[in-house]
Design brief:
Blueprint: H1 10-32, E1 40-41, H2 52-57, E2 65-70, E3 76-81, H3 88-105, H4 122-133, H5 135-153, E4 157-159, H6 161-168, H7 176-179, E5 180-184, H8 186-190, E6 198-202, E7 207-210, E8 213-217, H9 234-244, H10 256-273, E9 281-285, H11 297-303, E10 319-326, E11 329-334, E12 365-373
Parallel strand pairs: 6-8
Antiparallel strand pairs: 1-3, 2-3, 4-5, 7-8, 9-12, 10-11, 10-12
The structure holds zinc ion.
Zinc ion binds next to helix 9 and helix 10.
Length: 383
């Protein structure tokens, strides 16, 4: 040992020791840690609701490049490089990687992966792929991918150790989509906080959403909306459904104002960019014979439409109309027109024939559609 028998000043001894330790750190550090200097960041711990208008106004939508790396302890981790793409081809590659990740983890392609979920048809997967490569789809698939990054860093996703080994042995760095198997790890299977976002099919037409899923009807989309006759833009519909999920506002689905806001925030921006006119009215359909169980004050009052004192005038500001189906009277009827004129909130404006014999009895009618006006976005209003 170099220092033995020598009487060095304690200060000098300490300085020497420090420099030896520093040297050791310099030699050993980089050998174990694959990535230490690059600015690779994991996704933020908490999700923020997507502001689609703002995202679509930005130059790129896919976010930073996903990079898998090993920590100093040899643990496999994943993050994003902050650098924006150099050109459209690089952006496209990032979007494609997000779709590849979703295809492995989020898209249900086999039966019994999720209870009640039907596997997606190949045409539905193709549609989702085209959506993922579009500007709006890139935003939503980026959010889904960020969840995948979080799950991976928590150790909840199973990955192919031989693929990773090949990289450590000098092979190219695999993309995350090539590393994960699409299954949960042992830890993930038993963890309480795992919630994989799923896209799957159901028997029926159109699409639906919940906080952790988007569902697509196997009979596809309509070409026109049932009530308004407006043309349907499938990408805008998918964006609308993602808007109901945990990446947007999960409390908006099935509620009059929530749906109108979803159209304004998440559907119309996509329609406008795809050359479709914006939707101005949203028609909320109520299932026949199954009144919705709700605590939403507006919907509760609308459901009690026969009891006009409860339906206050102010409530109707956003409501464009209430449409009823009546026994023995085919077609749709304006529910409020079926009520005695004296009890109508807008009294005396348009005197209607109180004794119209053609009108069905309100008691034999059921509210079927609530038409809600889609408010223009406050920040998009003309000056
Ligand atoms: Zn909706």
């Amino acid at each position: 040992m170099m220092l033995r028998g020598m009487s060095l000043h304690p200060m000098l001894q300490r300085a020497l020791l420090a420099s030896v330790l520093l040297l050791a750190a310099l030699v050993c550090g980089p050998v174990l840690a694959e990535v230490t200097t690059e600015a690779i960041q994991p996704p933020s711990e908490t999700r923020l609701p997507v502001d689609l208008e703002q995202e679509l106004g930005a130059r790129w939508q896919a976010g930073g490049e996903i990079v898998v790396f090993a920590t100093e302890d040899g643990v496999v981790r994943v993050g994003r490089r902050a650098t924006p793409p150099t050109d459209a081809a690089v952006e496209h590659a990032r979007r494609a990687e997000h779709f590849a990740l979703a295809r492995k983890l989020n898209l249900v392609t086999a039966p019994r992966v999720v209870p009640m979920a039907l596997p997606l048809f190949p045409e539905q997967i193709e549609l989702l792929q085209r959506f993922a490569l579009s500007d709006a789809g890139a935003v939503w698939f980026r959010e889904m991918a960020d969840d995948t990054l979080r799950l991976f860093n928590q150790g909840y996703l199973d990955y192919d150790a031989t693929v990773w080994r090949a990289h450590l042995d000098g092979g190219p760095r695999p993309p995350l989509s090539a590393l994960i198997t699409g299954r949960l790890s042992e830890a993930g299977l038993f963890a309480q906080d795992v919630s994989v976002f799923r896209i799957f099919a159901y028997d029926g037409i159109g699409s639906m959403a919940a906080a952790a899923s988007v569902r697509m009807g196997r009979r596809g989309f309509r070409c026109q909306f049932q009530m308004s006759g407006e043309p349907v833009d499938p990408f805008a519909i998918l964006s609308h459904e993602f808007g109901h999920s945990r990446y947007g506002d999960p409390r908006s689905a099935g509620l009059p104002l929530g749906e109108a806001q979803t159209v304004a925030r998440y559907e119309n921006p996509v329609r406008l960019r795809n050359g479709f006119p914006p939707r101005l009215v949203y028609y909320l359909r109520l299932e026949p014979g199954r009144p919705p169980i709700t605590r939403n004050p507006l919907l509760m009052r609308l459901l009690a439409w026969r009891d006009l004192p409860k339906l206050r005038l102010g409530d109707l500001e956003a409501v464009d109309g209430l449409y009823c189906e009546c026994a023995d009277a085919p077609g749709l009827h304006d529910c409020l027109a079926l009520l005695p004129p004296a009890s109508l909130p807008v009294d005396g404006e348009a005197p209607r024939s109180a004794s119209s014999p053609a009108l069905p009895d309100a008691e034999r009618c059921e509210l079927r559609w609530v038409a809600v006006r889609v408010a223009p976005r406050a920040d998009a209003e003309a000056p």
